[in-house]
Write a structure and sequence with these properties.
heterodimer, A: about 110 residues, mainly beta, six-stranded mixed β-sheet, five-stranded antiparallel β-sheet, about 0% helix, B: about 120 residues, seven-stranded mixed β-sheet, four-stranded antiparallel β-sheet, about 50% strand, globular
Chain lengths: ~110, ~120
């Protein structure tokens, strides 16, 4: 079992829908990152969080440390949100500043 | 600021050849890292550096060397390319203690094919 599991692997939505992408992890963590990988391949950091909730525009990230679970929500989705969304965790159990990455969720938003 | 730059964007090598992937950042970040991305797998850490003169191995270091002579540059060397090293390579940097505490900034990637 991977340390970081994302669901769903693929998600197709209609423009305007509310999107939720889930990330579950199996280790104690000090930080969790959400990243966005554009169709052209570039990767952008969306959020880094260790507790609670963060919001940026139409994006909201939440984390529940006790349940070892995080969600990324997109409100009023738009075709330009189509991308791969990647969850990554900084495990307390590994040395250095290593992140362990999920395989990503491919999101397609149709107009 | 240019952010994190990588060269080349594309490269084709023959088995056994060596090459260096270049990475540079102009944000004065202490922490830099190299990842590879393969289909069906998450990004995997190859090597990282917490400052000039300091490097350490990541999850998949075999076949790769790094050095960090300046804060700005963090080149990745393939010693003797193998088809298993066909991948997309990303360089990333972050301030201070790295991704434990700070967001990472990623370069545009290098797509490498080894024949």
């Amino acid at each position: 079992k991977n340390e970081v599991e994302q669901s769903p692997q693929n998600l197709t939505a209609q423009e305007g829908e509310f999107i939720t992408i889930n990330c579950s992890y199996s280790v104690g963590i000090s930080a969790l990152h959400w990243l966005q990988q554009h169709p052209g391949g570039g990767i952008v950091s969306l959020f880094m969080l260790s507790s609670g909730k963060k919001k940026h525009g139409r994006l909201i990230a939440t984390i529940n440390i006790q349940e070892k679970h995080s969600s990324l929500h997109i409100t009023a989705s738009h075709p330009r949100d189509s991308a791969v969304y990647i969850c990554a965790v900084r495990s307390k159990e590994t040395s250095g500043s290593r992140l362990t990455f999920g395989e990503g969720t491919q999101l397609t938003v149709n107009p | 600021n240019a952010g994190v730059t990588q060269t080349p964007k594309f490269q084709v090598l023959k088995t056994g050849q060596s090459m260096t992937l270049q990475c540079a950042q102009d944000m004065n970040h202490e922490y830099m890292s190299w990842y590879r991305q393969d289909p069906g797998m998450g990004l995997r850490l190859i090597h990282y550096s917490v400052g000039a003169g300091i490097t350490d191995q990541g999850e998949v270091p075999n076949g790769y060397n790094v050095s960090r002579s300046t804060t700005e540059d963090f080149p990745l060397r393939l010693l003797s390319a193998a088809p298993s090293q066909t991948s997309v390579y990303f360089c990333a940097s972050s301030y201070g203690g790295g991704p434990s505490y700070n967001e990472q900034f990623f370069g545009p990637g290098t797509r490498l094919t080894v024949l």
